[in-house]
Amino acid sequence: MMKIETAPRLDNEQIERNFREIAPALTEAEARFEANRCLYCYDAPCTRACPTHIDVPAFIKKIASGNLIGSARVIFDANPIGATCARVCPVDVLCEGACVEGTLMEKPIEIGRLQRYATDYVMREGRQVLRAGEPNGKSVGVIGSGPAGLSCATYLARLGYAVTVYDRKPLAGGLDTYGMAEYKMPQLVSTDEAAQVERLGVEFKLNTEIGKDISLEELEKTHDAIFVGAGLGATARLNIPGEDLEGVYDALEFIERIKTRDWRNIPIGRTVAVVGAGNTAIDAVTQAKRLGAERVLMIYRRSEREMPAYEYEYELAKQDAIEFCWQTAPVEILASNGNSRVSAIRCVRMELTEPDSTGRRSAKPVPGSEFDIPVDMVIKALGQTKRKEFLKSIAGLELDQSGRVIIDKESMQTGNPKYFAGGDCVNGGREAVDASQMGKLAAAGIHQYLTGERVEFAGARIPLHEETQDVKAH
Ligand SMILES: Cc1cc2nc3c(=O)[nH]c(=O)nc-3n(C[C@H](O)[C@H](O)[C@H](O)COP(=O)(O)OP(=O)(O)OC[C@H]3O[C@@H](n4cnc5c(N)ncnc54)[C@H](O)[C@@H]3O)c2cc1C
Ligand code: SF4
């Protein structure tokens, strides 16, 4: 049960301003100008760099000619969560990072914002650009309504399958709905995208946990095939004393509360320490500051150089005056005498070893260097755990050592032929766009399993390029 902290509150208007989308929408004139900068490259590097392989030159050309519905169709055809991805994709290392204009003119085409321009148009106008196929009499169950599940459900509905998506949460969308920072993407974009999938005839059973409310046996009896897009679990524990004191929060739980926009009831301290330095940690520090915390510190055992967060996320945190405690690790969370509330975090200085064969430097504590930082809130942001228990309960599903589902990379089929899987539970946690692509490949795999027919969706031809992509974990 969360208790409300004691920081002086910013008024609602100020907080709304702090959480307003940072990247403004393009105006019509800006969109046309930007679209006309595109060189429409043959075998475009942006299309190759996009994990869902959207035909970027094709959708940009349609914007240039004023055909926004056609443009959105190209986008959603290859990526059913194209409106979300337009806002949350790390474009610098994906499509825009590969743009030829970036080399020639030092400014890549703003692919993400153009994608947003076209997809926002059809969503605002309520236009449905994808169509369901003729019913084929077969049924598929999808566990999880995150990007992987939504994408898989979309392609299956387009092939005429009766699809039911089960999610234990009250709203569909997975982390797109509950995890993305509001200033990157309002929750409404993700729930609208799920509604678009529902309009294809996909049934959503929300507040329904598979393995608890509905058994796996029942699910198997109901459906001809099952897709597992169950994502990852709770934030990893710090495993230090004091971790369960009042005022210590899990980053995901904290961010999820912010997504409700119920500003008065979101916990926030005066001085907040966030432990971790990945993209989730960066999202947590930035959001804590924007809620009105006076001081926000990010505590990381290694140095700035090893920090796993993206450069642009780090820049945002710097602009928000976050204090970075490099080479520092927490050893205990303290409460003041006779109190169960956090009052300080005890840390130790870390020294880094020489780089190993992979170039990575390890961190080890400097004996006797402990010191206390007075704080009244601690947010744990060490990354998400794997959902081993649930996944192991599916007979025949094999997991690798770290708890990721092992699949056939072509078909996304698991060790149990009736089950297919994709998204974070398979790749260990990457980006929404990767999960979307895996859902697409799984839909083709399921179709082949059930009918023997091969189908190729837009953007499915280039295999997952996990090895080449410079994408960091959240
Ligand atoms: C804080 C944070 C910020 C992020 N920011 C970005 C970003 O800016 N850009 C980006 O591209 N990516 C970002 N990501 C990563 C991105 O959110 C994930 O890669 C993506 O959501 C994975 O999709 P998924 O469908 O595999 O899983 P999820 O989105 O996690 O969805 C899984 C769904 O399965 C449901 N579920 C699980 N088990 C069951 C069950 N037994 N029964 C019923 N339902 C179940 C869950 O409730 C959930 O809705 C972020 C992640 C985090 C944690
Ligand atoms: S989905 Fe993401 S990576 Fe792909 S073109 Fe759109 S913004 Fe770029």
Helix content: 25-40%
The low-confidence parts are 465-471
- Report the portion of residues in β strands: 5-15%
Structural class: alpha/beta
The strand count comes to 14
- Would you give the CATH topology of the largest domain? FAD/NAD(P)-binding domain
Kindly report the average pLDDT value: 93
Give the name of the CATH superfamily of the largest domain: FAD/NAD(P)-binding domain
CATH architecture assignment of the largest domain: 3-Layer(bba) Sandwich
Topology (SSEs and partners):
Blueprint: H1 12-18, H2 28-37, H3 45-49, H4 56-64, H5 68-78, H6 82-88, H7 95-98, H8 100-104, H9 111-124, E1 139-143, H10 147-158, E2 162-166, H11 175-178, H12 187-198, E3 203-205, H13 216-222, E4 225-228, E5 248-250, H14 251-259, E6 271-275, H15 279-291, E7 295-299, H16 311-319, E8 323-325, E9 328-335, E10 342-352, E11 363-365, E12 371-374, E13 377-380, H17 388-392, E14 419-421, H18 424-427, H19 432-451
Parallel strand pairs: 1-2, 1-4, 2-3, 4-14, 5-13, 6-7, 6-13, 7-8
Antiparallel strand pairs: 9-10, 10-11, 10-12
Helix pairs in contact: 2-4, 4-5, 4-9, 5-9, 6-9, 10-19, 14-15, 15-16
Bound molecules: flavin-adenine dinucleotide (FAD) and iron/sulfur cluster (SF4).
Flavin-adenine dinucleotide binds next to helix 10, helix 11, helix 14, helix 15 and helix 19.
Would you write up a description of this structure?
With 474 residues, this protein is of the alpha/beta class. Helix content is 35%, strand content 14%. It contains 19 helices and 14 strands. The chain has helices spanning 12-18, 28-37, 45-49, 56-64, 68-78, 82-88, 95-98, 100-104, 111-124, 147-158, 175-178, 187-198, 216-222, 251-259, 279-291, 311-319, 388-392, 424-427, 432-451, and strands spanning 139-143, 162-166, 203-205, 225-228, 248-250, 271-275, 295-299, 323-325, 328-335, 342-352, 363-365, 371-374, 377-380, 419-421. Strand 9 and strand 10 form a beta hairpin. Helix 4 crosses helix 9, helix 10 runs parallel beside helix 19 (432-451) and helix 15 (279-291) runs parallel beside helix 16. The protein is globular. The site of flavin-adenine dinucleotide has 40 residues, from helix 10, helix 11, helix 14, helix 15 and helix 19.
